[in-house]
Amino acid sequence: MLKRKFLLIIAFVLSLGCFAGDYDLKNVPEDFIGTYIPVQMEVFVKEYMSYEKALFAIAKSHYDILLLNKNICYSQVMFDDGYAVKSEDFEKWSFVKRGNERFILDENGLSYRRISTKSDDYDAYAERILSLIFVDASHDKNIWISGKEVSIYGHKYYFQLSPSYMDEARENNALYLSGCLLKIEGVGAKIYSVVSDGNSRWGDLSLGKVVQTVSLFYWNDEKYPDLNVYKYKDSKSDLRLLRNIIYAKHGYVFKSEDLSRIFDAFYWYEPNFDFSEDDFSNWEKNILKEIKRYESENK
Hints:
Shape: elongated
Order of helices and strands: HEHHEEHEEEHEEEHEEEEHHH
Number of strands: 13
Number of helices: 9
Strand content: 15-25%
Helix content: 25-40%
Distance between the termini: 85 Å
Radius of gyration: 25 Å
Largest sheet: 6 strands, antiparallel
Mean pLDDT: 87
C-alpha cells in the first residue's frame, strides 16, 4: 500500500515537471521584462468608465494582464486564479520599442503596453485603472491615488482586481471599492454601501445607503468646450453646478459656502477679484442661456 502511494506521488511530481515545461519560456528579451496592460483594456475603461464592464469585455479576446519574467509569463484569468502563457504561444509574440515605451503583440496580434519594469506589479496595474476612472476627479486636491488605494476627502478605499460578479457594477458603470460601490450620477458620483440578502453569491448584492457624495466628479477641464447640457436638463443640482463652472473658470468669488468649498478644491480655480461677465466668450454666454432655460423649466 505504501509502495503504491509512493509511486503515485512520484508520478504526480513528474507530471508537474512535464506541465511546467509547457510554460518554460526561452529567449525572453531582458529589456521587456515587466508588467503589461492590454491596450484595449485602457480603451474600454475610458469608454465605459467601469472597470468590471471593461474586464468582462476584454476577457473575450485578451490576457487580463502580462507579468513577464525571465522564463515564465503569468496572465491570470479574470484575476481569479493563476495562469501562465504557453511557450508555444510565446514563440509567436512580437516585441516593439517606441522610445521609452515597450509593447508586446501576442500570438493573435493583440497589443499590451508595459506599465512597470517589475514583473509582478499589481499595484501599478491597479493605479493605472484607477487613474483612468478618476481622470476627471484628479483636478480635485482632496482626491488622490496610490497603488490600489484611492482617498476621497479623507475616506480611504481599496480597489480589488478580482471582479465582484456584481451585476450592478457592470450595468451601471460603477466601481467596486472596499465593500462599497462608486456610481456616476449626473456631474457627480455617489459611493454606496453594499448590502447582501444573506446569500453568499456576489450577484445577490444590492446598493445600500449613500456613504459619500463627490461633486463634479466627472468634470474634466479638457472637455469644457463640449459640455452637453441636455444630458443634465432634468437635474436642478447638476444644472446649478454646470452654470457655476463657467463662473469658476473665470475666477468668480463665490458667496455660497457649498460652491466655494467645491471649486476651491480644484487646482485650476484661481479667484479673480476683477471678475466680469464681459469676459465670457459667445459660446459660454450661449451655454448659460441654455442652462438657465432648463433651470426655469425645473422650477
